Amino acid sequence: MLNFAIQTAREAGAVLADRLGRALQVSQKGDIDLVTEADLASEKLIIERIKSHYPRHAILAEESGASNGVDFVPGKGDWKWIIDPLDGTTNYAHGYPCFCVSIALERAGAIEIGVIYDPTRDEMFAAERGQGTTLNGRRVRVSKVEDLNSAMLCTGFPYNVRERPNFARDFASFTMEAQAVRRDGSAAIDLAYIACGRFDGFWEDGLNAWDVAAGLLLVEEAGGRVSNFTGGALDIYTPKVLASNGLVHDAMMKVLGTP
After folding, report:
1. Is there a contact between 185 and 156 (Cβ–Cβ < 8 Å)?
2. What are the tens digits of pLDDT across the range 116-161?
3. Please, what is the Cα angle at 97 between 148 and 164, to 5 degrees?
4. Burial track 151-190 (b if 16+ CB lie within 10 A, e otherwise)
5. 96: which strand partners?
6. What is the pLDDT of residues 181-236, one digit of tens each?
7. Over 50: is that where the pLDDT of 178 sits?
8. Cα–Cα distance between 123 and 135 in angstroms, integer?
9. Average pLDDT, stretch 27-48?
10. What digits encode the pLDDT tens for the residues 55-71?
11. Gap between the Cα atoms of 62 and 156, Å rounded
12. Distances in Å between the alpha carbon of 66 and those of 41, 60, 200, 216?
């Protein structure tokens, strides 16, 4: 199933790359949340492949929502694919080359497989529970940075920023405490970069399951730590996510006001 996820992500990424820079039909899901025809084409390809190879598996996809396999019974340990066919849609719509395909496979509440593919750099991040994380087939690990003031962090800006008044405060605090803070517009890529040591820590409020499902497994299998803002076990269906190399995790929680 990992090889299936890798091949599917690569094919979906090719769809995105082929359409990048063309005149695209773009619509809005909210005030500033976009969806393009490339999102839909990528998702259609992924869903059709899953239904062809694993017809009894459930699917949760960003654009088309949830669908259940023939024998899917919630809570009974069945398989569920969690898909973001284009993470970084706003970047993509503007021709900014920071976006990816994210595919995860969940069973009984645990992510078993996670794949993130960046077609612009041809970078395939992949993980299977208990087997480590790879980038283009080579094992990767989180960074060894121990101090927050030497760390490069990343975050994302929530679409409903007016409803999350702590965001600006936290962003300003981390900017003062860390060596650098970046905002690339793709949570999945941010998490993949934590896994391979390019970033040292990540926090964001307002995410969905498909934004983080694959990335959290990449981070954990690369030796990092993922939690909610208070250090508890992360529920991918809640919006607050904190991920790091593990060494700066407590310091990040302190900045977030949750020591």
Report:
1. yes
2. 999 999 999 999 999 999 999 999 999 999 999 999 999 998 766 6
3. 50
4. bbbbbbeeeeeeebeebeebbebbeebbeebeebbbbbbb
5. none
6. 999 999 999 999 999 999 999 999 989 999 999 999 999 999 999 999 999 999 99
7. yes
8. 7
9. 74
10. 999 999 977 766 654 44
11. 18
12. 17, 4, 33, 20
Name the H helices within the chain.
2-19, 37-53, 89-93, 166-177, 187-195, 209-221, 249-255
242: left (phi over 0), alpha (psi -120 to 50) or beta: beta
Q: How far is Cα 49 from Cα 167, in angstroms, rounded to an integer? A: 38
Structure tokens given for 157: 């800006």
Place of tokens 């398989």: 79
Measured from the Cβ of residue 38, the count of other Cβ atoms closer than 10 Å reads 25
Contact 9, 113 (CB under 8 A): no
The tokens for 135 are 């980038």
Q: Output the average pLDDT for the chain.
A: 89
N-to-C CA span, the chain: 39
The DSSP string of 159-227 is TTGGG-THHHHHHHHHHHHSSEEE--S-HHHHHHHHHTTS-SEEEESS--HHHHHHHHHHHHHTT-EEE
CB within 8 Å of 110: residues ≥ 6 apart: 129
Q: Do 87 and 187 meet the contact criterion of CB atoms below 8 Å apart?
A: yes
Helix (H, G, I), strand (E, B) or coil at 132: coil
Which residue type sits at 241? V
What distance in Å separates the CA atoms of residue 62 and residue 198, rounded to the nearest whole number? 27
**Residue whose structure tokens are 């949570």:** 187
